[in-house]
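Problem 3 from the worked examples.
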Amino acid sequence: MLLKNGRIVDPANGIDRVGSVLLRDGVVAGIDVEDSSATEVDCTGNIVSPGFIDLHAHLRVPGFEHKETLATGSASAAAGGFTTVLCMPNTRPPLDNAQTVKELIARIDAESCVRILPIATISAERQGLASIDYDAVIAAGAVAFSDDGDSTIDSGVMAEALRATTRLGAPVMVHCEDRGLVGGAMHEGAVSAELGVKGLPAAAEEIILGRDLMLAEMTGGWLYGLHVSTARGVELVREYKARGVNVTAEAMPHHLIMTAEWVAGRRHFVNCNEPDGEPTEAPDALAKVNPPLRTAADARALLEGLLDGTIDVIATDHAPHAMSEKVGIPIEAAAFGMSGFEVALPSILALVRAGHFDIPQLVRWMTSKPAEIFDLPGGRLSPGSPADVVVWNPEQRWQVTPDALKTLSPNTPLLGMTLQGRVVRTFVAGNEVHAA
């Protein structure tokens, strides 16, 4: 396959120019290399980049296939330009032992069109009270540890997991939320008071993030802060990085461009100049996510953290739920989470159009940087690297509708809105897995 006339953006190799990319035998054969036997694809007006890498997603398998399957989840990932995805272990049963990890990998090999790498739990049954066999799950194919969806209650278990990272080279990826402060359905603040909805205070996240950073410093372990969402959280990560603690942090597209106002039905973007969406009925549970959409000041702090390197990568936290679990019920009873694969690129492009950063920076945060962090073979278009490539149009406008999405669960507050930027083609190991 010869991808011709596209703007090649490959930050790992310092490439940003119009040219061609040759894919042969599952790998990148070269840049601007002609091959008369190759099938040519005209990419004029499009960007050709390494396939995106998502370090944080929920694919719901095993146990919750009514929300997403490996087939629909991987198709959704491919439609969003993601060729490698790390999946969280809050499944049924949870991924807390080597056998369960192996069984999931076998299903991935049979059912997925993209690369999916499993994350094992930190604790037995994801209860936060007893350690698992860290060496065994890594040997079985897991690439990290997380109790995502909950924080690990026992600080001793967390410390043991962090010590394991020093010999295994796999991070502990932490969902930070103090269990004594849970029970709310959105960010605690002016909007929750207006709606009369119990809130989740920012301190619930910051207390546990602070604890886990201290434990990482104590043990010398590798801590990965999932979905940092508050200004104080950014400050904490910045402080501990400056002290030499091995900490990685991520931000979500929705926390960068949305606030708690969305729960009130006011679909106003922050940090960018995108037009508001039509108001929705309040409270809008499609905007219910954990950690919750917070304030404009928090969104600005996250953007600043991304720009100064405090935040390392952008991930999606793709969290599909059946629509019956999100709409037509009280917001307090609705599930937390948003479907994110297919709206991630246009969401982040809104920040590019606002002038905060450029396309090569966007591509770096979604390709070479996550590849470097996890020592993955993708994330670049070097000769011999996997032919995981995405072709995307930063100008194409499209409407977010259930029919336009590949995910089984189109639970996003962006439904009905018109976004700019869409994936045209996605290749994994040189095989086309998505074509718009």
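Problem 4, a separate protein:
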Amino acid sequence: MEELLMGGTGMFLFKQGSRNSLNNKRFEETFLSNYEHCLGMRLPHQDTVADVLTAIDPIHLEMVKMRLMSRLFEQKWLRPYRLLGQYYPVAVDATGVVSFDKPHCEHCLTKKSKSGKVTYFHYVLEAKLVTAAGHCFSLAGEWVENPSGDFNKQDCELKAFTRLAGKLKKHYPRLPLCILADGLYPNQTVFDICRSNEWKYILVLQDTMLKSVQQEVDLIRLRKPATESYRVKNGVRISSKYRFQTAIPYKKHLLHWMQCVETKTKDVKPGVENTAEPTASTFEYVSNIEPDRDNIIRLTAGGRLRWKIENEGFNTQKCGDYELEHKYCRNSYRGMKNYYTLLQIAHLINQLVEKSKFVTALQKEHSKQTIREIWRCLTAYMLLVSPTGTPPIQPSG
């Protein structure tokens, strides 16, 4: 079983993008020898792996992933990335995994276009630990799925969040979390869940959300900034102005409002006219962490970490050779879930490797050496260079 599950994970570890791609390398004796030499086990055929993954209950692999994360927390390696030195920033968001023109299974979600075409798709809600250093580790996932049989309304992201929150609290009961989420989440249900679980939150406040809070802060937006900061990054001058308001009542909760207005101007040499127009962006949040002049910059920076789940998380898994949207197990919903979890485990392992001292030093030594190129060189090494004293091995069934 270890060989079979590692064989499925290995497809993502080596960023092969499909079962067929890894199967082709399996016919190379040198690759097999290196695989066994590095991992201490044989590489199975991917059809055999798929047969196993269609039979395993997805909760088992999800538990493996959560135990791996629990081990990282136990080692205290992630403590330096806590927000305000206290809370682990956890971004929550959903993404599409696969879509079909015809029904895939009874749990498919559906949407109809203006032309009347119906698309069937699967969606997953993720809670990922994000850091300023670029890490994006999956803590837990919850599938947005329709129930079996008849139902009146499709499942949705907010319903899935209630289930995801229960899973997070069960498996990380004492972990101090700060939930980071987009403008869908500032509502009574989410506030209640975070309070009952003793979690902190920083949630994007959109113009159409929490009307009573919006009315409270309308005048505050016109006030003089409470704090300002200036910096230069990559040839751009960045001016940031911060405002906040504490203890705004909303039903049974007291919310704190924060705003960061960021203006970017191209930096030019003295004596050179700057013809570029400055660009301004506004970021607003509600939180149950009280802001002040000393922590407002760190709090808004923590809220902006939410983008990591989009960029370092979903975008990397879709476009960074993991091929998240590929149909690895077209005919099995259970198999599809298990492949998704193996991808998350492989991405966790690869991030630890890619941000290790060895790889970062290699990138500094060769300024144009990308992670993708390093992985291609690794695959070429596995294919072409035999491990010393290791004879070729025969493929397993």
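Solution to problem 4. The mean pLDDT is 92. The first strand starts at residue 88 and ends at 100.
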